Amino acid sequence: MIVVATDDFELYHDVVDELRDRGVAFTTQKPGAALPDRTRVVIRSPEDGAVAEDGAPGATDSDGGESENAPGIDVVVATAEEARRAVEEAVSILRGGGGRTVVGVDPGTRPGIAVLTGDTVVAAFQVPLADAVETIRREVADAPDPLVRIGDGARLQGSQLVNDLDDVTVELVDETGTTPYLGTGARGMGDVLAAVNIARLSGEATDSREIDPTAGELQRIKDRSREASSDGRTIDEGLARRVAAGELTVDEALATHRERDGGDAEEPSDG
């Protein structure tokens, strides 16, 4: 069982909300009070001090230091800003998990992202491509030796992610067959479920991926610019190539195009 034992009001409420959202059984108590018999994990703040059943040493805090807590009880120490991370760690301990943090990514204009600790999925997201790198970095920030596995299906978007994640270990994964059949009521979950499957597949380590966009890929970027524009504007091939390379977003390319021709709209073009 998880016990929340803290006098930190903000940490208490954030952790309790996270635990309730996940449907995890827990109890709460004041720091220093005797722990229930079935206590497995205690969540507390750095200011709360050790939580002990009988004053005996032996437990280990999440920061690696020895605590005065009872043997067999793991302690997760966190601030309010780390509430979600603390709950993920506590749940992983409770389930006998642990292990490496692996992030699976199903690339696209709105990538699916799944975060696994051991075999447990601890977080999932679907965000615009422009927000994907920040999301991934945030999820692996406190993890020792994290691994990011990116599917090889969406070449342009995937290469952007590989090239931008230059500070973490990345594997490129054959994503064939990773998108499951979606039954009634599961619409919209495909990319996230594919990301879970990608996270569980070994890939080829890579630190960069250079892709020369095809004519069809460039045309799709130009079509996207026309759809995103409020004045019927279509960017040219040079700007489309910069979007494909991750140097510009579509909105930035449109702004550059608009500035370059003095703000006059260009007639939509297929070429």
From TrEMBL:
Residues 46-70, 212-240 are annotated as: Disordered. It comes from the Archaea. Residues 219-240 have a biased composition (Basic and acidic residues). This is Uncharacterized protein. It comes from Halobellus limi.
